[in-house]
Design brief:
Layout (H helix, E strand, L loop, with lengths): L2 E7 L3 E7 L17 E5 L3 E6 L3 E7 L2 E3 L10 E4 L8 E7 L3 E7 L3 E2 L11 E6 L2 E6 L3 E7 L17 E4 L22
Family: Belongs to the beta/gamma-crystallin family.
GO molecular function, one term: structural constituent of eye lens
Keywords: Repeat
Length: 187
């Protein structure tokens, strides 16, 4: 069974709570804006800075995260339930899926192919993807899913520099995904 266990303190200390399904508002569970470490078993999870799965996004694959760059800034949690096999995403230069496009099936630093800081929309064919503001998995994150194509990035427009598909539990590499925390309302 997939689950996430959140802790109030760093290094898995303090109060804790386990979730096996998505939580749109951590206020109801007395865990709003107080999570400092977490453990993920099974499917990846996405943490959001605001309730109702809004605001800045932080993706976590299976593993232990003793400290978080989004420390005490999580207000909702969403379990990734999509099929993560054979990922594919199409990135577009212009909003509304216009302009030059590129299809990707694996992780890539867009700087290396001169396609960074130009992306304005996407369509996910398969898998779940993390789009990063900076190269090498740096900066703010946006999680992209097949059921949630985004025709206009708004404040994330022309900022994507790195993309990668989320992996299931078998591919956990034990490193925390980096994220500089600042609000990016995407919807």
């Amino acid at each position: 069974m997939s689950k996430i266990t959140v802790f109030e303190g760093i290094n898995f200390s303090g109060r804790s709570k386990e979730f096996t399904s998505s939580v749109s508002n951590l206020v109801k569970d007395n865990f709003n804006d107080c999570i400092s470490s977490l453990r993920v078993i099974g499917s990846p999870w996405v943490a959001y800075s605001d309730v109702n799965f809004r605001g800045s996004q932080f993706a976590f694959e299976e593993g232990e995260y003793a400290t978080l760059e989004c420390d005490k800034s999580i207000s909702s949690l969403e379990m990734v339930t999509e099929d993560l096999t054979n990922p594919q995403i199409t990135l577009y230069e212009d909003d509304n899926y216009g302009g030059k496009s590129r299809v990707f099936t694996s992780e890539i630093n867009l700087v290396h192919i001169s396609f960074h800081n130009v992306v304005s929309s996407h369509k996910v064919q398969r898998g779940v993807w993390v789009l990063y503001e900076k190269s090498n998995r740096g900066g703010a994150q946006m999680v992209a899913r097949p059921s949630r194509d985004l025709p206009n990035y708004g404040s994330f427009n022309n900022k994507v520099s790195h993309v990668r598909p989320l992996n299931g539990s078998q591919d956990y590499q034990g490193t925390q995904l980096r994220a500089n925390f600042y609000l990016t309302s995407l919807l």
